[in-house]
Amino acid sequence: MAGEIQTPIRFGIIGCADIARKVSRAITLAPNAVLSAVASRSLEKASLFAKANSFPPEAKIYGSYEALLDDPDIDAVYLPLPTSLHVKWAVLVAQKKKHLLMEKPVAINAAEFDVIARACEENGVQFMDGTMWVHNPRTAKMRDFVSDPERFGQLRTIHSCFSFACDPEFLSNDIRVKPDLDALGALGDAGWYCVRSILWATDYELPKTVLALPGPVLNEAGVILSCGASLHWDDGKLATFYCSFFSNLTMNVTAIGTKGTLHLNDFIIPFQEKEASFIENSQCFFNDLVTAWVPVPSEHIVTTDIPQEVCMVREFSRLVGDVKKGSKPESKWPIISRKTQLILDAVKTSIDKGLQPVQI
């Protein structure tokens, strides 16, 4: 029925990672979701997390992940555990028939992710990774531009960067620098977003060849702290990205077509929560004296009532609601996650092989 109100999807959160604070708030703000439980390996930690993040009083607190998964009242699980734990717990989530919203990177490699995706498929549960920016209304507006043959033309090249400067404490102790927890380091944490932006711009067409750029920085344990790569398509499209734990906070994407250019300076986390902008130029050239651009590039501001992470939770919950009514899970999300992971794997292989090109 049109306008039918969906029963809120009941979320359980496994693990009290920092990012879970943001997603807890998103679940609270989403109109079709509710925080129903949180689990940590210690009851006290789970209880403190629930209090600090305004869980409803009826939310359940669990001192083990298994206990939450055994709760028949939980529809979906948000999983922000370290990457090395994803395959074990994601498979269990799926086997318990819970839908899965999981942090990125989705796995240590694509073979591990295939185990997760298969478990979700066999158990009929919806999978989505936690890449928030693709759900921002701005992203749909940018898609309109890059898909327009008159304004943008054919895509030729994409350049993406995500960096943030980490302090010595982070570089020594954060899970993202530990080979047994998040072995992909900056490539998995920051590079994931760059790769996703490149795939987004190419409408998820995988490149033929991936080549790591010179100068990757690894710590003593072999975890990548900074790296770059170039991606090459058969039709001549080229992309590059750079991700780093050493450089100033930067989140840029530039996509250049035969007729237009898209610029974005805050693609992962908008400068402001309720509005986001992008700059487009189309068929620009110089004026007669070559002292100015004609026409001048235009800035488009897209406002949103709800932040992008709430858009993500709302969309995931909508899909879960559809599955509960008998629809099949939306397959595009695991496919996109797998393509992103495949490129990460190729970059890491290229680095491990002394910057050799890797075929996808």
TrEMBL record:
Q: Where is the GFO/IDH/MocA-like oxidoreductase domain?
A: 150-262
Supply the InterPro entries for this chain.
Gfo/Idh/MocA-like_OxRdtase_N (IPR000683), GFO_IDH_MocA-like_dom (IPR055170), NAD(P)-bd_dom_sf (IPR036291)
This protein's name:
Gfo/Idh/MocA-like oxidoreductase N-terminal domain-containing protein
Family assignment from sequence similarity: Belongs to the Gfo/Idh/MocA family.
Source organism superkingdom: Eukaryota
**Classification via Pfam families:** GFO_IDH_MocA, GFO_IDH_MocA_C3
Matching entries from SUPFAM superfamilies are given as: Glyceraldehyde-3-phosphate dehydrogenase-like, C-terminal domain, NAD(P)-binding Rossmann-fold domains
- Give the PANTHER family listed for this entry: GFO_IDH_MOCA-LIKE OXIDOREDUCTASE N-TERMINAL DOMAIN-CONTAINING PROTEIN, PTHR46368
Coiled-coil residues are none
Which segments constitute the Gfo/Idh/MocA-like oxidoreductase N-terminal domain? 9-128
